[in-house]
Amino acid sequence: MYLRTDLSLLNLLLSLSDALDLASPELSQHQMRVAFASWEIARESGLDTDTLDTLFIAALLHDVGALAPEEKIAIQRSTLQYYDDHCVLGERLLRQVRILAPGSAIVRLHHRPARKWQEVEQTPVALASQILLLADILERSIDRSRFILHQQEEIVARISSLSGQTIAPEAVAHFLPVAAREDFWLDLVSPRLYSILIRSAPLRGRTIGLVDLKPVSAMFRDMIDFRSPFTATHSSGVATSAAALARLYGFTEFEVELMEVAGNLHDLGKLGIPTRILEKPGKLDAEEFAIIRQHTYHTYTVLVSVEGLQGIAEWGAFHHERLDGSGYPFHLDASSLNAGARIMTVADMFTALAEDRPYRPGMCKDELLGIIKNAERRGFLDKRVVAVLEAHYEEVHSLAMRAQTEALEHFEREFAVRPSEDEEETRAAA
Ligand SMILES: [Fe+2]
Ligand SMILES: [Fe+2]
Ligand SMILES: [Fe+2]
Fold first, then answer.
1. What residues pack around ion ligand 2 (CB closer than 5 A)?
2. Which ligand is nearest the CA of 83, by number?
3. CA of 134 to the centre of ligand 2 (A)
4. Which of 38, 61, 69, 277 could form a disulfide with 135 if both were Cys (CB 3.0 to 4.6 A apart)?
5. Which residue segments constitute the domains of the chain, with CATH numbers given?
C-alpha cells in the first residue's frame, strides 16, 4: 500500500481546503488565500507560534460549515442573509476532530464584527478571529478579472474604511505593513500558492498518522452526507460495508482501517456539485450527468496530491469505473483496478441500492443481489467480491444499516439545528 503512517499535516490540509473551493472558479483557492493572508498579517501581530498555527488551520478550513456550493458562492458575493449558520456548523464540525478542535472557536467567530468585541488585544482568539475576518473580506474584495497590483490601493482603502465598526483597528494596523509589499499581493493571487505554502507555511514538519487521519476523514464524510437528504448517510454506509467486505476478503486490519478512510472520502468531489443536481429526483439530462461525472475525478486529484495517500485515492475514487473499461471518468479496466477499488465499487452499489432514498425505499435482499449479480455477469464488477457479499449478505447489511442509523442520530443531535443565534452577527461583515 502506498500509505505512509506519517502524512504531512500541511499537505493534507492544503489539499482538503482545495476541495472546499471546487464549486466554482470564483471560489477557487479562497480558503488557501485567506489562510495565506491571515498568516502574513498574524506574523506582524506578535501572536505566539501556537496561536499562529491554530489560526492558519482555522483559516484553511474557515468555511467548512457552508456545505452547499450555493451557500459558499453567496458568501463570496456577500449576498447571504445569515452568515452565522456556517460559523456555528463549522465550529461543531471542527470540535469533533482532536487536531482541528483548537481552531473551532476562531471559525465560530470569523464573521463577528469588531463593534461586538470589547478589547480585541486581550485574548488571542479575539485577535486571531479579527485577522481571519479581515483576510476573508480582503480576499472577497479582489476582482479576479483585473491585475492585482492595479487594485491594491482600493482594497487597502476599503479595509481601512471598515476599521473600527467591522474590523478591529489592531488587525488593520498589522495589515498595513504587509499590504505595502508587492510580493504579498502577487503570492496571494498566484496559481502556485499551494507550492508557495508547502515551502514556507506554518505546520511544516508536523505529521499525522492513521489515528488522526480517521476523524478528519469522518468530518469530511459528515460534510458530504449531511448536505442533503438525498445523500443523508450514504458515505457512512459505503465506508462500513467496504471495510466489512475488505475484512471478509482477507485484507489486513491496517488495510481495513484504510478502506474505511477511503469510504469516508469516496464522494469527496461531490462537495462541488450543485444541490439542484444532487437532489434531482428524476433522471439527469446529459448536461447534468456531465457535471456529476467529475466528482470522482476531484476525489482522486485532491487525495493523490497528498504524499502517502495514493492508495486511498485509488480505492476511493475508482468506484464508478467498471472492469470492462466502460465506467467513468478514467475508463480504467481490469488490468489497473486493484482489489481495494473493486471492493469499493461493490460497496458503493450495494449501499446505494440498500438505503432508502427520498424517491424510493431501500431494496430487499433478492432484488438487490439480482441487480449486483447481473452487473457482475455483464463484466462490470469483480466475481470474488460479489461472491463475498452474497455469502455474508446479512452481516454486511446489518453492519452498514447500524452505521447509517448511528450517523443519522449523530446528525440529528449535532447538526440538524441550524440556529441563527445572533441577528446582528448574521447580517454582519460585508
Ligand atoms: Fe465565512
Ligand atoms: Fe470565506
Ligand atoms: Fe460516487
1. 63, 136
2. 1
3. 10
4. 38
5. 9-206 (1.10.3210.10), 227-414 (1.10.3210.10)
Could you count the other beta carbons within 10 Å of the beta carbon of residue 81?
10
Containing H/E element for 207? strand 207-208
47 pLDDT exceeds 70?
yes
State the distance from the centre of ligand 3 to the C-alpha of 319, rounded, in angstroms: 6
Q: Yes or no: say if 232 and 359 are a contact pair by the CB < 8 Å rule.
A: no
pLDDT tens figures, 52-111: 999 999 999 999 999 999 999 999 998 887 888 999 999 999 999 999 999 999 999 999
Q: What is the pTM of this model?
A: 0.94
Q: Which three cell numbers stand for residue 178?
A: 504587509
Task: Name residue 207's beta-bridge partners.
Answer: 8
* Interval between CA 322 and ligand 3 midpoint (Å): 13
Ligand with minimal distance to 59 CA: 2
* Amino acid of residue 260: E
Ligand 3 centroid to 337 CA: how many Å? 16
Weakest mean pLDDT among 83-92, 241-250, 416-425: 416-425
Give burial (CB, 10 Å; 0-12/13-18/19+) of 36. Answer: buried
Is the peptide bond preceding residue 113 cis, with omega within 30 degrees of 0? no
> Residue 8: in which H helix or E strand, if any?
strand 7-8
Give distance in angstroms: CA of 132 to centre of ligand 3: 34
